[in-house]
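Collaborator request, handled under Task 6.
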Amino acid sequence: METRKLVSVIIPSYNRAHIISQTIPSYMQEGVGEIIVIDDCSTDNTQEVLQKLKKEIPCLVIKKNKKNRRQTYSKNRGIRLAQYPYIYFGDDDSFITEGTIPTLLGYIQKYPDALISARPLFLKTGWQMKDLKRYIRSTEKHPAEKGYRFLDWETMSVDWDVFYTDLTKTDVTHACFLISTENASKLSFDSAYQAANAFREETDFAMQAREMGLSCYFAPHAHQINYPRMVSDKKTTKRSGLAFRWGHFKNTKYFFDKHYDFMKLNNMVHSSKGRILLRYLYSEVSQLW
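Structure tokens returned to the collaborator:
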């Protein structure tokens, strides 16, 4: 399988100078032709760090927004800039394990009309970072049963902890996934998701893809490793408080207003939209105490 220069990695970034020197290099894998970082008008020394990385990663493309426009704008800009036939949407606060891009390429070349996500894992303790292989093995003790739904739309709860041994079809993907540039260009990240760090914008993109007839999958043996919030959010917007929780609810309501009919038709939801939103509002408020 030819895997050279097939993928444009797109990474929006804001005030993550303290961590991007650890995350961005992980995306330089076999098959990657360019890594496009969109600096969303950071106020820290992001540009300085990126310029140093550019010396190590010649295919690093650095762009900076004239003003802070949030992730949706940055990702849409990245789509327009992409030069290769596939796009992988990465994160500035997470990294991928070795072989992830070639693994995803192998699957998407079999299923071209798809979004294929690496398995998301979330670091919580120091030992997990120090012994990553042992940590990954420890998460593979409970394989998901066939037909398991990672996201329960009725309660808007998600379970990323289960393990899957085969390519697994899902309702939507995680935030980081591989898609053909042709398909990505027919979609866009909705800029209406402004509150709470653009919460739900990736889920919205994936649901748009579903409505366009694409499929969503999780791939085994490919991993997107997320740093703990206390590390990644060191200098970014804090993810707590009433305003932030209200932003979650506001964006979730907008998401259901857009997609509820499609989700109902495809048996993703059974309760009324109002009932689902009331349950979700209660869960968000309860986390404040």
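The cover message to the collaborator said: "Residues 85 and 181 are 5 Å apart (CA to CA). The two ends are 53 Å apart (CA to CA). Please let us know whether this matches your experimental observations."
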